[in-house]
């Protein structure tokens, strides 16, 4: 009788372990999906912000270019056009970020760094460990009670 009860208990524990493993895997998958969704939404917000900024900056750049060109013609001094050079670089960067391929190039370079230069990604003093955190917590805690 004890053997039957023990076998039933083992089967129950095994089923419970499998359920817990499946549940933790499902939870991890959900967390990964949620993190990816948040990253995608943040990137979309950044692109949208860049496109909106580009509208305002493009208007400013156009007015500045017309005004500086008119001033250069009126004063017969081409040096008045000099501010257009840095403004055009800013405009080109913002356009590339909002509508161009800048993000794909950045992604490609990031993948290259991950593949070929991973030593640049190492943290100073190595990865953070639980023991390091506990040591810092104990040194900063006013209420720490030693066991």
UniProtKB/TrEMBL annotation:
GO CC aspect terms: plasma membrane
InterPro entries: Plg-R(KT)
GO biological process terms held by the UniProt record: positive regulation of plasminogen activation
Membrane-spanning intervals of the chain: 53-73, 79-95
Keywords: Membrane, Transmembrane, Transmembrane helix
Pfam families: DUF2368
Source taxon at top rank: Eukaryota
Record's protein name: PLRKT protein
Organism of derivation: Steatornis caripensis
Gene: Plgrkt
């Amino acid at each position: 009788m004890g053997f039957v009860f023990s076998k039933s208990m083992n089967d129950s524990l095994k089923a419970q372990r499998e359920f817990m493993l499946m549940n933790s895997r499902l939870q991890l998958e959900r967390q990964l999906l949620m993190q990816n969704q948040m990253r995608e939404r943040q990137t979309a917000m950044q692109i949208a912000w860049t496109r909106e900024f580009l509208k305002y900056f493009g208007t400013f750049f156009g007015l500045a270019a017309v005004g500086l060109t008119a001033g250069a013609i009126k004063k017969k001094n081409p040096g008045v056009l000099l501010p257009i050079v840095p403004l055009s670089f800013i405009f080109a960067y913002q356009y590339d970020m909002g509508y161009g391929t800048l993000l794909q190039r950045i992604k490609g370079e990031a993948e290259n760094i991950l593949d070929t230069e991973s030593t640049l990604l190492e943290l100073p003093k190595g990865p953070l460990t639980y023991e390091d955190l506990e040591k810092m917590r104990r040194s900063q805690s006013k209420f720490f009670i030693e066991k």
